[in-house]
Design brief:
Blueprint: H1 4-11, H2 18-23, E1 28-32, E2 44-48, E3 51-57, E4 63-67, E5 81-82, E6 87-88, E7 95-96, E8 102-104, H3 111-114, E9 122-123, E10 125-128, E11 131-134, E12 158-165, H4 169-174, H5 181-185, H6 196-201, E13 213-218, E14 222-230, E15 236-244, E16 248-250, E17 258-267, E18 270-278, H7 286-293, H8 321-326, H9 335-343, H10 363-380, E19 399-403, H11 409-413
Antiparallel strand pairs: 1-11, 2-3, 3-4, 4-9, 5-6, 6-7, 7-8, 10-11, 12-18, 13-14, 14-15, 15-16, 15-19, 16-17, 17-18
The structure holds FE2/S2 (inorganic) cluster and fe (ii) ion (FE2).
The site of FE2/S2 (inorganic) cluster has 9 residues, from loops.
Protein backbone atom coordinates (compact mmCIF):
# COMPACT_ATOMS: atom_id res chain seq x y z
CA UNK A 1 0.00 0.00 0.00
CA UNK A 2 1.28 3.48 -0.90
CA UNK A 3 0.34 6.97 0.18
CA UNK A 4 -1.33 9.22 -2.36
CA UNK A 5 1.93 11.15 -2.75
CA UNK A 6 3.94 7.98 -3.33
CA UNK A 7 1.46 6.77 -5.92
CA UNK A 8 1.65 10.09 -7.74
CA UNK A 9 5.45 9.78 -7.73
CA UNK A 10 5.21 6.24 -9.14
CA UNK A 11 2.64 6.90 -11.86
CA UNK A 12 3.04 10.47 -13.15
CA UNK A 13 5.39 10.68 -16.12
CA UNK A 14 4.83 14.06 -17.79
CA UNK A 15 7.66 16.59 -18.29
CA UNK A 16 9.06 17.83 -14.97
CA UNK A 17 7.63 15.02 -12.83
CA UNK A 18 10.24 12.96 -10.92
CA UNK A 19 9.30 9.68 -12.63
CA UNK A 20 9.00 11.39 -16.00
CA UNK A 21 12.52 12.73 -15.58
CA UNK A 22 13.83 9.30 -14.54
CA UNK A 23 12.39 7.74 -17.74
CA UNK A 24 14.02 10.57 -19.67
CA UNK A 25 17.46 9.31 -18.57
CA UNK A 26 17.09 6.07 -20.57
CA UNK A 27 16.75 5.10 -24.23
CA UNK A 28 13.18 3.91 -24.81
CA UNK A 29 11.32 2.27 -27.71
CA UNK A 30 9.41 5.00 -29.56
CA UNK A 31 7.85 2.73 -32.18
CA UNK A 32 8.48 -0.28 -34.38
CA UNK A 33 10.92 0.37 -37.23
CA UNK A 34 8.24 -0.74 -39.70
CA UNK A 35 6.06 2.24 -38.74
CA UNK A 36 8.45 4.48 -40.67
CA UNK A 37 9.55 1.86 -43.16
CA UNK A 38 12.02 3.59 -45.49
CA UNK A 39 13.74 6.79 -46.60
CA UNK A 40 11.31 9.74 -46.82
CA UNK A 41 8.69 7.65 -45.02
CA UNK A 42 5.21 8.88 -44.26
CA UNK A 43 5.32 10.74 -40.93
CA UNK A 44 3.87 8.82 -37.98
CA UNK A 45 2.33 10.17 -34.79
CA UNK A 46 3.80 9.05 -31.48
CA UNK A 47 3.00 10.13 -27.93
CA UNK A 48 5.48 9.28 -25.17
CA UNK A 49 5.70 10.49 -21.57
CA UNK A 50 2.83 12.90 -22.25
CA UNK A 51 4.59 14.55 -25.22
CA UNK A 52 3.06 14.58 -28.71
CA UNK A 53 5.71 13.87 -31.32
CA UNK A 54 6.07 13.02 -34.98
CA UNK A 55 8.52 10.47 -36.37
CA UNK A 56 9.86 10.27 -39.90
CA UNK A 57 12.87 9.05 -41.84
CA UNK A 58 14.83 11.50 -43.93
CA UNK A 59 16.09 10.93 -47.49
CA UNK A 60 19.15 9.15 -46.09
CA UNK A 61 16.94 6.79 -44.04
CA UNK A 62 17.89 8.43 -40.74
CA UNK A 63 15.05 8.39 -38.18
CA UNK A 64 13.94 11.68 -36.67
CA UNK A 65 11.54 12.31 -33.78
CA UNK A 66 10.38 15.88 -33.42
CA UNK A 67 7.66 17.92 -31.71
CA UNK A 68 4.24 17.24 -33.22
CA UNK A 69 3.59 20.97 -33.66
CA UNK A 70 5.28 23.48 -35.93
CA UNK A 71 7.06 26.32 -34.07
CA UNK A 72 5.61 28.91 -36.51
CA UNK A 73 1.98 28.82 -35.39
CA UNK A 74 1.53 25.36 -34.02
CA UNK A 75 0.12 23.46 -37.00
CA UNK A 76 0.36 19.63 -36.89
CA UNK A 77 3.49 18.36 -38.62
CA UNK A 78 1.83 14.96 -39.04
CA UNK A 79 0.40 16.33 -42.30
CA UNK A 80 3.86 17.47 -43.38
CA UNK A 81 5.62 16.73 -46.65
CA UNK A 82 8.69 14.57 -46.11
CA UNK A 83 11.12 15.70 -48.79
CA UNK A 84 14.87 16.16 -49.37
CA UNK A 85 16.13 15.50 -45.87
CA UNK A 86 13.46 17.29 -43.89
CA UNK A 87 9.81 17.44 -42.91
CA UNK A 88 7.98 20.46 -44.31
CA UNK A 89 4.94 21.92 -42.57
CA UNK A 90 2.17 22.16 -45.15
CA UNK A 91 0.63 25.28 -43.59
CA UNK A 92 3.33 27.78 -44.68
CA UNK A 93 6.20 25.59 -45.83
CA UNK A 94 8.69 25.77 -42.95
CA UNK A 95 10.99 22.75 -43.08
CA UNK A 96 12.94 20.94 -40.32
CA UNK A 97 15.62 18.26 -40.45
CA UNK A 98 15.97 15.26 -38.09
CA UNK A 99 18.12 17.31 -35.70
CA UNK A 100 15.34 19.91 -35.33
CA UNK A 101 17.12 22.60 -37.36
CA UNK A 102 14.89 24.84 -39.51
CA UNK A 103 16.39 24.41 -42.98
CA UNK A 104 13.87 26.45 -44.98
CA UNK A 105 11.52 29.30 -44.10
CA UNK A 106 10.05 30.25 -47.47
CA UNK A 107 6.93 32.34 -46.71
CA UNK A 108 8.65 35.52 -45.60
CA UNK A 109 11.45 37.80 -46.90
CA UNK A 110 13.33 37.58 -43.59
CA UNK A 111 13.14 33.78 -43.74
CA UNK A 112 16.71 33.25 -45.01
CA UNK A 113 18.19 34.76 -41.85
CA UNK A 114 15.36 34.14 -39.39
CA UNK A 115 15.45 30.37 -40.03
CA UNK A 116 18.77 30.16 -38.18
CA UNK A 117 17.02 31.39 -35.03
CA UNK A 118 14.19 28.85 -35.25
CA UNK A 119 14.33 25.21 -34.24
CA UNK A 120 11.94 22.50 -33.19
CA UNK A 121 12.39 20.04 -30.30
CA UNK A 122 14.10 16.95 -31.74
CA UNK A 123 15.13 13.87 -29.81
CA UNK A 124 18.00 11.55 -30.77
CA UNK A 125 16.71 8.36 -32.39
CA UNK A 126 18.36 5.04 -33.24
CA UNK A 127 17.01 2.21 -35.42
CA UNK A 128 18.04 -1.12 -33.90
CA UNK A 129 16.50 -4.56 -33.44
CA UNK A 130 13.32 -3.65 -35.34
CA UNK A 131 12.69 -0.71 -32.98
CA UNK A 132 13.15 3.06 -33.25
CA UNK A 133 14.66 4.04 -29.90
CA UNK A 134 14.46 7.57 -28.54
CA UNK A 135 16.27 9.51 -25.83
CA UNK A 136 14.18 12.38 -24.45
CA UNK A 137 16.42 13.66 -21.66
CA UNK A 138 19.00 16.43 -21.35
CA UNK A 139 21.78 16.27 -23.96
CA UNK A 140 24.52 16.28 -21.34
CA UNK A 141 23.13 13.12 -19.72
CA UNK A 142 22.58 11.08 -22.88
CA UNK A 143 23.54 7.53 -21.86
CA UNK A 144 25.26 4.88 -23.98
CA UNK A 145 22.91 2.60 -25.89
CA UNK A 146 21.61 -0.62 -24.29
CA UNK A 147 23.44 -3.90 -24.72
CA UNK A 148 20.50 -6.27 -24.54
CA UNK A 149 21.58 -9.62 -25.97
CA UNK A 150 18.72 -9.66 -28.47
CA UNK A 151 19.93 -6.43 -30.05
CA UNK A 152 22.92 -8.36 -31.41
CA UNK A 153 20.69 -10.89 -33.23
CA UNK A 154 19.56 -10.93 -36.86
CA UNK A 155 15.94 -9.75 -37.10
CA UNK A 156 14.66 -13.23 -38.05
CA UNK A 157 15.55 -14.45 -34.54
CA UNK A 158 13.10 -11.98 -33.00
CA UNK A 159 9.33 -11.62 -32.91
CA UNK A 160 7.91 -8.49 -31.37
CA UNK A 161 4.36 -7.29 -30.86
CA UNK A 162 3.42 -3.77 -29.84
CA UNK A 163 0.09 -3.19 -28.11
CA UNK A 164 -1.56 -0.08 -26.72
CA UNK A 165 -2.80 -0.54 -23.16
CA UNK A 166 -5.32 1.80 -21.58
CA UNK A 167 -3.75 1.95 -18.15
CA UNK A 168 -0.72 3.34 -16.34
CA UNK A 169 2.60 1.72 -17.25
CA UNK A 170 3.30 0.56 -13.70
CA UNK A 171 0.21 -1.57 -13.14
CA UNK A 172 0.85 -3.25 -16.47
CA UNK A 173 4.41 -4.02 -15.36
CA UNK A 174 3.34 -5.24 -11.91
CA UNK A 175 1.83 -8.32 -13.57
CA UNK A 176 5.35 -9.48 -14.49
CA UNK A 177 6.51 -9.05 -10.89
CA UNK A 178 3.76 -11.23 -9.52
CA UNK A 179 4.39 -14.94 -10.11
CA UNK A 180 1.38 -16.11 -8.11
CA UNK A 181 -1.21 -14.86 -10.58
CA UNK A 182 -0.21 -17.37 -13.26
CA UNK A 183 -1.63 -20.35 -11.39
CA UNK A 184 -5.03 -18.70 -11.30
CA UNK A 185 -5.44 -16.27 -14.17
CA UNK A 186 -3.76 -18.32 -16.87
CA UNK A 187 -4.82 -21.85 -16.03
CA UNK A 188 -7.27 -24.21 -17.62
CA UNK A 189 -9.54 -26.52 -15.67
CA UNK A 190 -8.07 -29.77 -16.98
CA UNK A 191 -6.19 -32.29 -14.84
CA UNK A 192 -2.85 -30.68 -15.61
CA UNK A 193 -3.96 -27.27 -14.33
CA UNK A 194 -1.93 -25.96 -17.24
CA UNK A 195 -3.19 -24.01 -20.20
CA UNK A 196 -2.17 -24.35 -23.81
CA UNK A 197 0.37 -21.55 -23.68
CA UNK A 198 2.07 -23.32 -20.81
CA UNK A 199 2.30 -26.48 -22.86
CA UNK A 200 3.73 -24.53 -25.79
CA UNK A 201 6.35 -23.11 -23.50
CA UNK A 202 6.83 -26.34 -21.62
CA UNK A 203 6.58 -24.65 -18.25
CA UNK A 204 3.62 -26.51 -16.82
CA UNK A 205 5.41 -26.52 -13.45
CA UNK A 206 4.28 -22.91 -13.15
CA UNK A 207 0.81 -24.23 -12.53
CA UNK A 208 1.53 -26.84 -9.86
CA UNK A 209 1.90 -24.53 -6.88
CA UNK A 210 -0.41 -21.59 -6.20
CA UNK A 211 1.94 -20.16 -3.62
CA UNK A 212 5.36 -19.42 -5.15
CA UNK A 213 8.05 -18.09 -2.86
CA UNK A 214 10.20 -15.19 -4.07
CA UNK A 215 13.91 -14.86 -3.43
CA UNK A 216 14.97 -11.32 -4.38
CA UNK A 217 18.32 -9.61 -4.89
CA UNK A 218 18.99 -5.97 -5.76
CA UNK A 219 21.33 -5.69 -8.75
CA UNK A 220 23.07 -3.06 -10.91
CA UNK A 221 20.17 -3.10 -13.39
CA UNK A 222 17.29 -3.43 -10.91
CA UNK A 223 16.00 -6.62 -9.32
CA UNK A 224 16.68 -10.35 -9.70
CA UNK A 225 13.64 -12.47 -8.87
CA UNK A 226 13.64 -16.20 -8.24
CA UNK A 227 10.13 -17.63 -7.91
CA UNK A 228 10.27 -21.11 -6.33
CA UNK A 229 7.40 -23.54 -6.69
CA UNK A 230 7.10 -26.87 -4.94
CA UNK A 231 6.98 -29.88 -7.25
CA UNK A 232 5.15 -33.13 -6.47
CA UNK A 233 8.47 -35.04 -6.20
CA UNK A 234 9.76 -32.79 -3.40
CA UNK A 235 12.05 -30.73 -5.62
CA UNK A 236 11.48 -27.06 -6.35
CA UNK A 237 11.14 -25.38 -9.75
CA UNK A 238 12.64 -21.90 -9.88
CA UNK A 239 11.80 -19.36 -12.52
CA UNK A 240 14.56 -16.74 -12.61
CA UNK A 241 13.48 -13.37 -13.99
CA UNK A 242 14.71 -9.78 -14.03
CA UNK A 243 13.28 -6.32 -13.72
CA UNK A 244 15.50 -3.67 -15.27
CA UNK A 245 15.17 0.06 -14.75
CA UNK A 246 13.00 1.70 -15.72
CA UNK A 247 10.50 -0.72 -17.27
CA UNK A 248 12.05 -3.87 -18.76
CA UNK A 249 11.09 -7.31 -17.53
CA UNK A 250 12.07 -10.80 -18.52
CA UNK A 251 9.11 -13.00 -17.67
CA UNK A 252 9.74 -16.64 -16.81
CA UNK A 253 12.18 -18.30 -19.18
CA UNK A 254 11.08 -21.01 -21.51
CA UNK A 255 13.52 -23.66 -22.68
CA UNK A 256 12.89 -22.76 -26.34
CA UNK A 257 12.96 -18.99 -26.54
CA UNK A 258 13.77 -15.99 -24.38
CA UNK A 259 11.26 -13.27 -23.63
CA UNK A 260 11.24 -9.61 -22.71
CA UNK A 261 8.43 -7.16 -22.01
CA UNK A 262 8.92 -3.41 -22.26
CA UNK A 263 6.45 -0.77 -21.11
CA UNK A 264 6.66 2.75 -22.46
CA UNK A 265 4.34 5.31 -20.89
CA UNK A 266 2.22 7.14 -23.46
CA UNK A 267 0.91 9.34 -20.66
CA UNK A 268 -0.31 8.65 -17.13
CA UNK A 269 -3.33 6.61 -18.26
CA UNK A 270 -1.95 4.72 -21.26
CA UNK A 271 1.16 2.80 -22.22
CA UNK A 272 2.66 0.78 -25.02
CA UNK A 273 3.72 -2.74 -24.32
CA UNK A 274 6.42 -4.26 -26.51
CA UNK A 275 6.39 -7.98 -26.03
CA UNK A 276 9.17 -9.90 -27.66
CA UNK A 277 10.52 -13.35 -27.87
CA UNK A 278 13.77 -14.35 -29.42
CA UNK A 279 15.96 -17.32 -30.10
CA UNK A 280 19.64 -16.78 -29.38
CA UNK A 281 20.78 -19.68 -31.58
CA UNK A 282 18.57 -19.84 -34.68
CA UNK A 283 15.87 -18.01 -36.61
CA UNK A 284 12.34 -18.49 -35.31
CA UNK A 285 10.60 -21.22 -37.31
CA UNK A 286 7.73 -20.49 -39.69
CA UNK A 287 5.48 -22.43 -37.32
CA UNK A 288 6.49 -20.28 -34.36
CA UNK A 289 6.05 -17.07 -36.33
CA UNK A 290 2.64 -18.07 -37.62
CA UNK A 291 1.56 -18.95 -34.12
CA UNK A 292 2.66 -15.49 -32.96
CA UNK A 293 1.40 -13.43 -35.87
CA UNK A 294 -1.99 -14.93 -36.54
CA UNK A 295 -3.82 -15.15 -33.27
CA UNK A 296 -1.90 -17.66 -31.18
CA UNK A 297 -2.24 -17.94 -27.46
CA UNK A 298 0.75 -15.80 -26.55
CA UNK A 299 0.12 -12.80 -28.80
CA UNK A 300 -3.42 -11.47 -29.20
CA UNK A 301 -5.10 -10.42 -32.42
CA UNK A 302 -4.94 -6.67 -33.12
CA UNK A 303 -7.48 -4.39 -34.80
CA UNK A 304 -5.93 -3.83 -38.26
CA UNK A 305 -4.14 -0.50 -38.57
CA UNK A 306 -3.94 -0.07 -34.79
CA UNK A 307 -2.08 -1.52 -31.83
CA UNK A 308 -5.34 -2.10 -29.96
CA UNK A 309 -6.41 -5.65 -29.25
CA UNK A 310 -9.61 -7.02 -30.81
CA UNK A 311 -10.63 -8.30 -27.37
CA UNK A 312 -10.62 -5.17 -25.22
CA UNK A 313 -12.32 -3.34 -22.40
CA UNK A 314 -15.15 -2.17 -24.69
CA UNK A 315 -16.27 -5.76 -25.31
CA UNK A 316 -15.33 -7.21 -21.90
CA UNK A 317 -12.31 -8.87 -23.51
CA UNK A 318 -14.75 -11.26 -25.22
CA UNK A 319 -15.16 -13.24 -22.01
CA UNK A 320 -17.00 -16.49 -22.65
CA UNK A 321 -18.86 -17.51 -19.49
CA UNK A 322 -19.54 -21.03 -20.77
CA UNK A 323 -15.82 -21.53 -21.37
CA UNK A 324 -15.19 -20.17 -17.86
CA UNK A 325 -17.47 -22.83 -16.40
CA UNK A 326 -16.09 -25.69 -18.43
CA UNK A 327 -12.61 -24.97 -19.72
CA UNK A 328 -10.50 -22.12 -18.40
CA UNK A 329 -10.27 -20.14 -15.20
CA UNK A 330 -11.24 -16.88 -16.91
CA UNK A 331 -13.14 -17.80 -20.07
CA UNK A 332 -10.86 -15.30 -21.80
CA UNK A 333 -8.82 -16.61 -24.70
CA UNK A 334 -5.32 -15.28 -25.36
CA UNK A 335 -2.73 -15.25 -22.60
CA UNK A 336 -2.09 -11.53 -22.84
CA UNK A 337 -5.79 -10.66 -22.98
CA UNK A 338 -6.24 -12.54 -19.71
CA UNK A 339 -3.68 -10.16 -18.22
CA UNK A 340 -5.17 -7.12 -19.91
CA UNK A 341 -8.65 -7.76 -18.52
CA UNK A 342 -7.30 -7.63 -14.99
CA UNK A 343 -4.68 -4.93 -15.47
CA UNK A 344 -6.50 -2.15 -17.30
CA UNK A 345 -8.99 -1.56 -14.50
CA UNK A 346 -7.48 -1.93 -11.02
CA UNK A 347 -9.71 0.58 -9.33
CA UNK A 348 -9.29 2.41 -12.64
CA UNK A 349 -6.54 3.02 -15.19
CA UNK A 350 -4.28 4.50 -12.50
CA UNK A 351 -4.54 2.22 -9.50
CA UNK A 352 -4.57 4.45 -6.38
CA UNK A 353 -2.75 1.77 -4.30
CA UNK A 354 -3.92 3.40 -1.06
CA UNK A 355 -6.37 0.63 -0.15
CA UNK A 356 -4.43 -2.48 -1.18
CA UNK A 357 -3.82 -5.45 1.11
CA UNK A 358 -0.43 -6.77 0.06
CA UNK A 359 0.87 -10.19 1.10
CA UNK A 360 4.21 -11.96 0.84
CA UNK A 361 3.38 -13.06 -2.74
CA UNK A 362 3.61 -9.35 -3.59
CA UNK A 363 7.18 -8.99 -2.33
CA UNK A 364 8.70 -8.31 -5.79
CA UNK A 365 6.02 -5.70 -6.53
CA UNK A 366 6.84 -4.00 -3.24
CA UNK A 367 10.61 -4.06 -3.87
CA UNK A 368 10.39 -2.71 -7.42
CA UNK A 369 8.18 0.15 -6.25
CA UNK A 370 10.77 1.00 -3.60
CA UNK A 371 13.70 0.87 -6.03
CA UNK A 372 12.12 2.94 -8.79
CA UNK A 373 10.70 5.57 -6.39
CA UNK A 374 14.13 5.91 -4.75
CA UNK A 375 15.77 6.34 -8.18
CA UNK A 376 13.25 9.07 -9.06
CA UNK A 377 13.76 10.86 -5.74
CA UNK A 378 17.55 10.56 -6.00
CA UNK A 379 17.46 12.10 -9.45
CA UNK A 380 15.44 15.05 -8.14
CA UNK A 381 18.21 15.54 -5.58
CA UNK A 382 20.88 15.46 -8.27
CA UNK A 383 22.01 11.82 -8.27
CA UNK A 384 21.91 10.38 -11.78
CA UNK A 385 20.69 6.75 -12.13
CA UNK A 386 23.80 4.55 -12.35
CA UNK A 387 22.00 1.86 -14.37
CA UNK A 388 21.42 4.25 -17.29
CA UNK A 389 25.18 4.45 -17.76
CA UNK A 390 25.84 0.75 -17.29
CA UNK A 391 24.52 -0.83 -20.49
CA UNK A 392 26.50 -4.05 -19.98
CA UNK A 393 24.50 -4.76 -16.82
CA UNK A 394 21.48 -5.28 -19.07
CA UNK A 395 22.95 -8.40 -20.71
CA UNK A 396 21.19 -10.73 -18.30
CA UNK A 397 18.98 -13.61 -19.38
CA UNK A 398 16.07 -15.27 -17.62
CA UNK A 399 16.45 -18.92 -16.78
CA UNK A 400 14.84 -21.80 -14.93
CA UNK A 401 16.15 -24.55 -12.73
CA UNK A 402 15.02 -27.50 -10.68
CA UNK A 403 16.70 -27.89 -7.31
CA UNK A 404 16.21 -30.11 -4.24
CA UNK A 405 13.43 -28.82 -1.99
CA UNK A 406 15.87 -27.69 0.70
CA UNK A 407 18.47 -26.05 -1.62
CA UNK A 408 19.80 -22.58 -0.80
CA UNK A 409 18.03 -20.56 -3.50
CA UNK A 410 19.85 -17.33 -2.69
CA UNK A 411 23.16 -19.01 -3.39
CA UNK A 412 21.87 -20.70 -6.55
CA UNK A 413 20.64 -17.38 -7.96
CA UNK A 414 23.94 -15.53 -7.58
CA UNK A 415 25.35 -16.28 -11.07
CA UNK A 416 22.17 -15.04 -12.76
CA UNK A 417 22.42 -11.40 -11.71
CA UNK A 418 25.73 -11.15 -13.58
CA UNK A 419 25.71 -10.13 -17.25
CA UNK A 420 26.21 -13.06 -19.59
CA UNK A 421 28.84 -12.52 -22.30
S1 LIG B 1 2.37 26.70 -38.87
FE1 LIG B 1 3.88 25.52 -39.83
S2 LIG B 1 4.69 26.79 -41.33
FE2 LIG B 1 3.17 27.98 -40.43
FE1 LIG C 1 0.04 -12.92 -16.66
Amino acid sequence: MLTQEENALLTQVGPGTPMGELFRRYWMPAMLSEEIPGADSTPARVRILGEDLVAFRDSDGKPGIIDAYCPHRGAPLFFGRNEECGLRCVYHGWKFDVTGKCVDLPNSPEGETYKDKVSITAYPAIDKGGVIWVYMGPKEHKPPFHHFQWLDLPLDHIFMQKTTLNCNYFQSMEGDLDASHAYFLHRTLDDQSANISARIRDDAATYFDPNPHYTLADTDYGLLMGASRKLADGNQFISVAHWMLPSYTTPGASPKVQQMNIRVPIDDENCYQYRLRYDLDQPLSAQELNEDKYGGFLFPELIPGTYLTVANKGNDYLVDRVAQKNYSYTGIKAFQIQDLALIEDQWGPISPRTEEHLVSADSAVIRVRQIIMKAARDLMEGTEPASANNPDAYRVLPTRMTLPGDADVEEALKPYSIPQA
